[in-house]
Amino acid sequence: MTRYAMTVDLRRCVGCQTCTAACKQKNGTAPGVQWRKVLDIETGEFPDVRRTFMPVACMHCDEPPCEEVCPTTATQKRDDGLVSIDYDMCIGCSNCVMACPYEARSIAHDVKFAYGDKPMANEAKMFDPARIEVASKCTFCIERIDQAHEQGLTPGVHPEVTPACVNSCASGAMLFGDIEDPNSNVSKLLKETQSFRQHEELGTGPGVYYIWDKNDEEL
Amino acid sequence: MNSSNTKTVPSYCYNCVAGPDPMKVEVVDGVATQVMPNFDACDSHPGKGRPCVKAYGLVQKTYNPHRVLQPMKRTNPNKGMDEDPGFVPISWDEALTLLTDKLNSIRAKGLIDEQGTPRTAATFGHGGTPMYYMGTFPAFLASWGPIDFSFGSGQGVKCVHSEHLYGEFWHRAFTVAADTPYTRYVLSLGTNVDATGGPCAIARHADARVRGYKRVQVEPHQSVTGATAAEWVPIRPKTDAAFMFALIHSMLHDHPRNELDIDFLRDQTASPYLVGPDGLYLRDPDSAKPLIWDSEQQQAVPFDRVNVIPALEGTFKVGHAISVDADDERHQLNDIEATTGFNKLLDHVAQYSPDWAARICDIPADTIRRIASEYLDNACIGETIEIDGATLPFRPVAVTLGKSVNNGWGAYECCWARTVMATLVGALEVPGGTLGTTVRLNRPHEDRLRSVKPGIDGFMEQKLNPTDKENWVAKPTGRNAHTTLVPIVGSSAWSQALGPTQLAWMFQKDRPEGFNLPEPTKPDIWFIFRSNPAISFWDTRSLNKSIADFPYTVSFAYTLDETNWMADLLLPEATDLESTQLIPIGGTKFVEQFWKHKGAILRQKVVEPQGEAKDFTWISTELAKRMDLLDKYNTAINRGAGGVAPLRGEGYDFSLDINKAHQPDEIWDAVCKATSTELSNNEETKDLDWYKENGLYLKPIPQKSWYLYPTMKELGIRFEMPYQERLLRIGKELGNRLHEKDIAWWDEQLSEYSALPEWHDIPGRWETALKNEGADPDDYPFWLLATKSMQYHTGANVSIQLMREVSQNVRGHTGVIMNSNSAAKLGIANGDRVEIRSNIGVTIGRAELIQGVRPDTLVIVGQFDHWATPYAKDLEMPSLNTIAPMSLELTDATGSGADIVRVAISKVKGETS
């Protein structure tokens, strides 16, 4: 079996939002819709302050709460671990938006472009009317993953079939691959480091692993 | 997106000095849709083929509906913020006719005006990067004649100015970086390298963090780089010199000598040079060479005597010597007591204990001592490393300085202290240590190692502006008077733009009493490209008025903006994805571009230009043709002005017919062929089509070229550290020249020329300046700093919606950063609309309250407060530049000013939280 997952090395991330921009461009999301972004988090009080950057997006959970509440089965977890949305089936009820503990989903109710009502040439080219009034979120660049087999390429190894955010990351903080494959980049990295997943206590089984510094444990 | 008409096209992003970085652009049915990394360069580019976030804005930049897409001429003869320029579209033919008529009228009058300055001025943006978007325009400028680059767009106040000048002086370091892949410990004073260092710096530091290096970030607010550091030390603004002096004190007075690199100090620096009672080097009476003390023969001998072990410390009786003062005044010295430069340093810093600095810097003395200890602990004295088969010292500790630490008052002290810290442990220009990146004031630009030549007194040869009576340039050749006032900036091609550019603006309006230099003129014509000084310099409202007074301004325009609002002619150039240019890539370059390859990379026409926008090379050629300058223009291109290599070299000749007007592709095809042939030593030739397909051409270079130490050793040259006898003498000479002309207004700047920099209440200068302006410093209790944003930094992209959107995720991009506790005392809540007021003006934005900033400090990210640029003008973002005064009093000897201002902050009246 294949289980695609992502690792995010918090030791590397500089919060630059290159992944945010690359995702928006590759997926043609409307202004204000961010399928992924990097949180800029502050803890502590002056002068003992910690500032941390944390990339967040859909966690592609093992037990997705969004799937459970979807009345039309538009949201489905695939065998390879990706949580997908069938826009034709989605009725935009927002159940999934509310159910997701990671605030990873949103619904674009209006057609919006960067500069007013008229799309630029690139926006016109990328605009997908099927994504209006339906839930949307990070897909792990699902169409790239789906091309991998026919192209004989490996997601996480070959950029053509790897999520745009992972490709773009200037600090190399993100990796992608099959955690069921012990020789994949993500498996090897997870074996060498310590990691956590967001809200593991909820039992959702997130598919995004955060790698962090052992020294941070004391902070 | 999948389509049969989809292709990916290689190109580069060079929107900031941290580039160029390779990238690819996806084009679907002729429309650019997305930017992506160029993984073909993954193994050669230190950033692994990835561009930074700014590059992703280039698609919107191309299709931005607010672009100027047709030549425009001004119809309103009045200029000012409140005067609608009344731009009307015209044809390219009319635009170029207007321009050539203007240029011909200037040529008829003479290229130099009555005051001796060029009638033509030009201002290009950040760090020379516009060069890499202006095609062959440099060749046109070369064919034209003298150009005044005095009017800066932020140079001197927004860059690391003093580092440029002193860095090249001491170790050919136009900018300075840690040898990040090898270092173990980096002391970073305000260096925001994770925001402004581009993918190369980001990737290198990320690797180093995972490897386990430690970076201590010393800065008043916790920047992006502070966030990724192991430790944040919130220092009081502009006290960095005191902190570093105390570190040096601790290294010298709290630790045993064997924790220093004694061999390096003795053999590679001026530490053993003897200094006499007059503060000058003792010199051999016959040769005038500096003396050292032969510890075996117990006598003073010239520094280059072989088989001598010089004494590093001690006081010695010298029977007969001379010293050479300013203007070659020679003193005979008999039976005097001398000490070494190292001893002078030792005595000098005795006063600067950590306890002394703690009060000034608001950093506990124990923290200062601990950092000094950590620095020494990690220096690995005595260790070596193999690089390219050579055994080099391994000293994995580095010190880096950020903007406002290394410009303005205090910058000389900090640059000196940083270099001294490296020197004390032999960590200067060796693996793991503090390195220079490239040269700009010295030549050749592409190889800083070759810029090093033996000079006087055992040091590097320096090409300084003369200060002796016979050769001093009493009449400035440009409006910022760089050859007259700033000896160490030199007079090479880059020097003028690195001169005191704020003086050029200041002197347009006011001149100090007893100015006694030719009264500055306005340029007859001013070219502006990829630059918006009306926003990016200081005292911008006043600067606007100066710009409005310029008689004829030509803007190569992307959108309307605050500077070209005053222009007479707007010429739309084909932007990043629409035009062609071949540029150098690789080698070593700022900020942390340390490659193991070098070569050339192509920017190509990814998509057809929008509207009537024209390739800059086409514009340049048309101008040359119409001005009857084709021969000179093509000759300049043949010499290499348009690219990276001369078109004719040993064994190859791709030179252009100098009498013909060549199309851009014809020109760049020749440049591509010449470059690849030269790079491959005539082994292969790659044409434009090959570059279009493959993007870049590289050849390997040795990593050893990152380090200056082997060259210095090979040439027998010492680093001019720690004692600054030469600078002391130059300062005295400059003072003599100025005083001979009764110029006293530069006297305060002359005080910077000291052999060993002293603490001089640097932050107090801002309070004194307020008092001298009739203001009460107590009315301005906060320091306001500006910090850079990766999303915007020099990207000329404030009108790009994507950058605005993603930047909102990074703190500081919604207004002004303020300490929450300080805000509470003033009744300011998060998101409140606040006014930040200096003694010259006010800027308005939203309060962004955090804990990671000193209670006495406010921070504004980027440069905003636009009033003309479409989209940006609606953001209501504050800007330090609106309220920072240009002040001679706050200008240092290099002509730079620190990006900092004293302010008050309050909630905008009538608004509730």
From TrEMBL, chain A:
| Alphabetized GO MF terms | 4 iron, 4 sulfur cluster binding; metal ion binding
Origin species, per record, is Amphritea balenae
InterPro entries xrefs: 4Fe4S_Fe-S-bd, 4Fe4S_Fe_S_CS, ET_IronSulfur_Cluster-Binding
Question: By what name is this protein known?
Answer: 4Fe-4S dicluster domain-containing protein
Q: Domain 4Fe-4S ferredoxin-type, which positions? A: 4-33, 49-80, 81-110
- Pfam families per the UniProt record, alphabetical: Fer4_11 (PF13247)
Q: Which SUPFAM superfamilies match?
A: 4Fe-4S ferredoxins (SSF54862)
> What PROSITE patterns does the record tag this protein with?
4FE4S_FER_1 (PS00198), 4FE4S_FER_2 (PS51379)
Keywords assigned by UniProt? 4Fe-4S, Iron, Iron-sulfur, Metal-binding
UniProtKB/TrEMBL annotation, chain B:
Q: Provide the alphabetized UniProt keywords.
A: 4Fe-4S, Iron, Iron-sulfur, Metal-binding, Molybdenum, Oxidoreductase, Signal
Which segments constitute the Molybdopterin dinucleotide-binding domain? 807-864
Which GO terms of the molecular function aspect are on file?
4 iron, 4 sulfur cluster binding; metal ion binding; molybdopterin cofactor binding; oxidoreductase activity
Q: Which residues form a coiled coil?
A: none
Annotated Molybdopterin oxidoreductase domain ranges read 67-626
Q: Which InterPro entries does the annotation name?
A: Asp_de-COase-like_dom_sf (IPR009010), MoPterin_dinucl-bd_dom (IPR006657), Mopterin_OxRdtase (IPR006656), Phenylacetyl-CoA-OR_N (IPR041932), Prok_Mopterin_Oxidored (IPR050612)
Q: Name one Pfam family in it.
A: Molybdopterin
Family of the protein in this entry: Belongs to the prokaryotic molybdopterin-containing oxidoreductase family.
What is this protein's name? Molybdopterin oxidoreductase
